[in-house]
Design a protein that fits this description.
Helix 2 runs antiparallel to helix 4 and helix 6 packs parallel to helix 9. The protein is 52% helix and 9% strand. With 306 residues, the protein is mainly alpha-helical. The strands form 2 sheets. A 3-stranded antiparallel β-sheet has the order 1-4-5. Strands 2-3 form a two-stranded antiparallel sheet. It contains 9 helices and 5 strands; from the N terminus they run ααααβββββααααα. The chain is elongated and about 80 Å long.
Length: 306
């Protein structure tokens, strides 16, 4: 379309082209009171040049068509808006009226990114590409300071049970890892790679990183890279922890290429991805252990000062 070329002629980057199209469409008024489109007209053409008003389906379709005309891979996403917040139940109520359509544009380094061309909806704000703030480490609960009960002796039986538990936990984790590795090895690459990325995503959440459902795979990888790199910075006690970042990046790259591109993952790549996940998972467990002992040391110091 000539309109797409005119709107994006001065945009220096693909992201700027997408923003230019989004901004243009948001100037068109929103309404649900619409006539039936003429049967002999293309709906997008009719919306852009004659009707000049519409609702989310019109906006999302128009931006997808314009983006493709401007050389950007684009698609329509359909789902629900957040709905209305119910303060009494502390939750959002999503009804059929919250049904919504929007546009997603694919960027090679970031994956599918949401855009909101519908003028009645709030625009989606993103950080500039690559500008990921250093995540804060998960907050540790403050120990209560007050009257401290006198310490009681620990019976020999309790020490015996504790010793058995300390030995049993690593053994159980080892068996779990072996079972999981065998299960992944039996999967096809088409099943194993998406599952590995899903684990990467939930790993980021379990570490307390600010990962949302709309985060792209590369944004998740960047947050985890910053997290593991924080252990290698001055005055950190685990400089080797940063080695988990590259395996995560490799898994994410394989997932993006196979999911959003015509790339067939080989069995060798699947096996390598499984080994990389095991490496990163081990580092994540060590990170949790370090935080646990650091929190314990802080509680001890506060108790001593009290």
């Amino acid at each position: 379309l000539a309109l797409a070329r005119d709107l994006t002629a001065t945009a220096p980057t693909p992201y700027d082209r997408a923003i230019a199209l989004e901004n243009y469409l948001r100037t068109i008024p929103y309404t649900l009171d619409l006539p039936t489109p003429p049967p002999d007209r293309d709906v997008t053409d009719y919306f852009l040049f004659d009707l000049r008003r519409g609702y989310c389906d019109y906006y999302a379709t128009a931006m997808a068509v314009l983006a493709r005309a401007a050389g950007l891979p684009a698609r329509i996403a359909v789902g629900y808006a957040t709905g209305d917040f119910d303060a009494t139940r502390n939750e959002y109520v999503v009804t059929e009226a919250s049904a919504h359509s929007w546009t997603q544009v694919y960027f090679p380094e970031y994956g599918w990114v949401d855009f909101e061309p519908t003028s009645a909806r709030a625009i989606i704000q993103y950080d500039s590409p690559g500008a990921f703030a250093e995540p804060e480490l998960p907050a540790q609960p403050e120990a209560e300071v007050g009257n401290v009960a006198p310490a009681r002796g620990v019976s020999p039986n309790a020490w015996y049970v504790l010793s058995i538990a300390l030995l049993a936990i690593p053994f159980a984790l080892g068996l779990l890892m072996i079972f999981d590795s065998l299960r992944l090895a039996r999967m096809t690459a088409a099943r194993a790679v998406p599952l590995l990325y899903q684990r990467v995503f939930y790993l980021a959440r379990s570490l307390g990183l600010p990962v949302t459902a709309s985060a792209t795979p590369n944004q998740v990888a960047a947050l985890l890279a910053d997290y593991f790199a924080s252990f290698a910075r001055p005055q950190r006690i685990a400089p080797w922890m940063h080695s988990a970042a590259q395996p995560i990046a490799n898994i994410v790259e394989l997932y993006v290429n196979s999911t959003y591109g015509a790339y067939a993952v080989s069995n060798a790549e699947r096996a390598a991805a499984i080994q990389q996940w095991q490496h990163a998972r081990t580092r994540a467990w060590l990170a949790r252990a370090i935080h646990f002992f650091q929190a314990g040391a802080r509680r001890v110091r506060r108790s001593v000062r009290a």
